[in-house]
Amino acid sequence: MRILIVSDAWSPQVNGVVTSLQALISELRGLGHQVKLLSPADFRAVPCPSYPEIPLVWNLWRVGPAIRAFQPDCVHLATEGPLGWAARRWLSKRGLAFSSAIHTRFPEYVHTRWPRVPLRWGYAFLRAFHQPSQAVLVTTERMRDEFAGWGFKRLLLWRKGVDTRLFRPALTSPSQAGPIFLYVGRIAPEKNIEAFLALDLPGRKQVVGDGPQREALQAAYPQARFLGYQHGQALADAFQNASVLVFPSRTDTYGLVMLEALACGTPVAAFPVSGPLDVLQTGVSGVMHEDLRAACMAALGLDRARCAELAARQSWRASALEFLAQQPLLDGELCMPAGQGLHAVGRDQALT
User: Fold this and answer.
1) What three-state secondary structure class fits 344?
2) CA 317, 323, 324: angle at the middle one, nearest 5?
3) Parallel, antiparallel, or unpaired for β 2-6 and 34-38?
4) Quick check: helix, strand or coil at residue 336?
5) pTM, whole model, 2 decimals?
């Protein structure tokens, strides 16, 4: 099957959306499908104001011809940015079905940066984007229920996974003086990192990641070690060497870094909010409490082997198969040559 994925988020960005798409594309290709990604790398872009690591594509008139040139059997819109909107308009105008996904709590992120913007405006924006989608993919049942409450339709589950070949327990326990409390992710206001950095904790604090708040937070909290972005084995090492992953966000839809930490045997401390509530088993793989310090200290006593065992059950292959099962087939005129494309075969055949 020929699968087109459109995403405004892609490498060199480092976030959960990019990680999910990289894993999905790898698994889909491993299953024998042809996958093409339309990303800012294929277009001209300018840096996003106040968030320069995010590119905004502007020569959007090239999106439609790019879709037509690939002749896809199905199309998935991964983000609600300029590329996603351009593809949505082009597909909808031609009566072509597509799927889409909600990866982030966009309204809460906007409200965090600009408190005067009501949440309902952000949700109205998201509803408008996803309204024509035949399958709006969300990560958890909790997300499905919450977004249904905001008026979203055709919500389906697409659960995420973890790369257990990379993220796995260390062969030997690290020798260190005192515990290491670790944060991994973007350094931005919506991540609520200061709630972690301001805690009075024993041992050391480490921050892996980058973003618009890094300079200010690094100056305000010199006792914390800021390591920048880490990738591959270096990132796995950071998880393995940590005593606890601290996840202070209150707005994430899921939080893949929690799964990656657990796969390395590292328990998680978090607030009892969506994301942690969907990933963690309280008292087993993590501790959730409104007192984040109390959660951090309690998480130190959890069984690391049990954490790794629970995370190992969630593979990216299973996630990719679930994604495939939710994809609507193109239904409209794309000017495909006769006998080509999914219209010439059955759905079950195309998925194998």
Assistant:
1) helix
2) 95
3) parallel
4) coil
5) 0.75
